[in-house]
Amino acid sequence: ARLRICSYELLGPGWGGACFPGPVEGRAVDGVPQIRILLVDDHAIERQGVRSLLDAQPDLKVVAEDGDGLEALPLVSQCHPDVVVTETIMPRMNGLELTGQLLRRYPDIKVLVLTRNDREDCVLRLVQAGAGGYLLKTASAAEFVAAARTVSVGGTVIDGSLSHRLAGRRQPPEEELIHRLTARELDVIAALVRGRSNKEIALDLGIGLRTIESYVSAILNKLGVRSRTEATIFAIEHHLASPKPSK
Fold first, then answer.
1. How far apart are alpha carbons 17 and 70 in whole angstroms?
2. What is the predicted pLDDT for the residue at 212?
3. Element housing 214 (H / E)
4. Averaged pLDDT for residues 214-233
5. Using CA atoms, how far apart are residues 138 and 216, in angstroms rounded to an integer?
6. At residue 53, does pLDDT exceed 60?
7. Which residue, 49, 74, 83, 146, has fewest beta-carbon neighbours within 10 Å?
8. DSSP character for 140?
9. What's the confidence (pLDDT) of residue 10?
10. DSSP for 24-68?
11. CA 55 to CA 29: how far, in whole Å?
């Protein structure tokens, strides 16, 4: 089933804007580690549906929500989310501006974009700003939940339809950059495209976590990009690895 939640334009900013009660210390409930989520979307009906979906998972908890990027910023210091799920188009401060400000103030926070906006330039700009994932609202509930978990541990998620479109608009090969990558670094970048976290890549390849971290750092330096998500986009566009097939 696809996650298609009704949208009512008359429900705008001002709905939300509060932290929800719940434990912060230890970030666990009944022994289950909690991924704390701040939800930012100017459509209140959609926020309610997404919040219900996330809160139904034992390891995911929406700790705050707001309908405006500007009003959401102070909630981060109050509610201590691990992941911010945001729309791209909102009044006063859009998802791109919010992502940039969030990561300047809180560099360890993760950002997952959940939107109807499928413009490729928007995807690239959000990725360059530091978003760890970009998912369309036509994704299934299972895909969205999996994306939230993946982004929370530093993995990368790009909506399947967008991945294939980005691959289809292949850029002229930057041979010098690509030839700098070793065979093992190509293995690692292929795993990044599949959305694997550093810990998962280490297990997949049978090598240490610190070694994987060194490989990722080397890949970013060689490609001249700032984040693993930008490296993922580069790999898709230059066919260094294939995105996961669309479902």
1. 10
2. 93
3. helix 209-223
4. 86
5. 31
6. yes
7. 74
8. B
9. 27
10. -TTSEETTEEPEEEEEE-S-HHHHHHHHHHHHTSTTEEEEEEES-
11. 12
Distance CA 27, CA 33 (A): 6
Which residues on neighbouring strands pair with residue 18, listed in sequence order? Answer: 65
Strand partners, 19: 64
> Directed axis angle between helix 183-193 and helix 228-237, to 10°?
100
List, in order, residues 6 or more apart from 131 with CB less than 8 Å away.
99, 111, 112, 113, 229
User: In the block, which residue shows the tokens 């499928």?
Assistant: 118
Provide the percentage of residues in the chain whose pLDDT is more than 70: 80
Measured in Å, how far apart are the chain's first and last C-alpha atoms?
A: 11
Alpha helix (H) residue ranges in 56-182: 69-79, 95-105, 120-129, 141-152, 160-168, 175-179
The pLDDT score that the predictor gives to residue 33 is 82
Label residues 149-158 b or e (16+ Cβ within 10 Å = b): bbbbbbbbbb
DSSP state of 191: H
Greater confidence (82 vs 178) lies with: 82
Identity (one letter) of the amino acid at 21?
P
Identify whether the C-beta of residue 190 lies closer than 8 Å to the C-beta of residue 235: yes
Q: Please state, in angstroms and as integers, the Cα–Cα distance from residue 221 to each residue in 55, 149, 166, following that order.
A: 38, 27, 22
Does residue 130 contact residue 98 with C-beta atoms inside 8 Å? no
Residue with the bigger pLDDT between 29 and 13: it is: 29
SS3 (DSSP) at 210:
helix
Range from 52-66, 70-84, 170-184 carrying the lowest mean pLDDT:
170-184
CA distance 147 to 140: 11
Q: What is the pTM of this model?
A: 0.68
Q: Is residue 71 a contact partner of residue 40, using CB atoms and an 8 Å limit?
A: no
The 3-state DSSP class for residue 134 equals strand
Q: Which residue bears the tokens 């139904």?
A: 56
